[in-house]
Amino acid sequence: MTLPRSVCVYCGSRSGAKPAYAAAAQETGEMLAARDWQLVYGAGDVGLMGEVARAAQTAGGRTFGVIPEHLFPREVGKRDLTTFVVTETMHERKKVMFMNADAVVVLPGGAGSLDELFEVLTWRQIGLHEKPIYLLNIEGYWAPLEALIDHIIGEGFADASLRELVVTVDSVAELESALVSAFA
């Protein structure tokens, strides 16, 4: 018997400028619950974080949230999760989230989401893990980041293999298919 899978979702603590971002977060939460894959995320009840968690909960999914003490008021720590962990630091938060996930998905977000992405991408680049990393490119949100990664490679600061370490998907359906393949 295989253990249930967990998917770490990094995303904004804001909703962003386009309604499609919140819709994708909701659809992601619903998809994870339907597949019986646990949502691992930053334990906030605001922005896209809140959207993905509430959707997963409403659909009967398991939720594992991790929040540092200092962000509890700002991100409105969501205490009604299946598992709720409060850490002392951001570093601890990121470690606990990553260690409790089998894959990483990055929805639209800001500097915090980029920080989380680049940390796990760097760890993968230097061989510390082989967990798949996906960018959910809703309405082309991550196109500038993809161009930056290509620029970094073109300017000789990374091998072309860097591009293969993060997979861009344009819809939740495409994300689901990619995760199913990765978990097979």
From TrEMBL:
Keywords: Cytokinin biosynthesis, Hydrolase. Pfam families: Lysine_decarbox. It catalyses: AMP + H2O = D-ribose 5-phosphate + adenine. The keyword Protein transport does not apply. InterPro entries: LOG, LOG_fam. Its EC number is 3.2.2.n1. It comes from the Bacteria. The keyword Hydrolase applies. Belongs to the LOG family. NCBIfam families: Rossman fold protein, TIGR00730 family (TIGR00730). This is Cytokinin riboside 5'-monophosphate phosphoribohydrolase. The lineage of its organism: Bacteria, Pseudomonadati, Pseudomonadota, Alphaproteobacteria, Rhodobacterales.
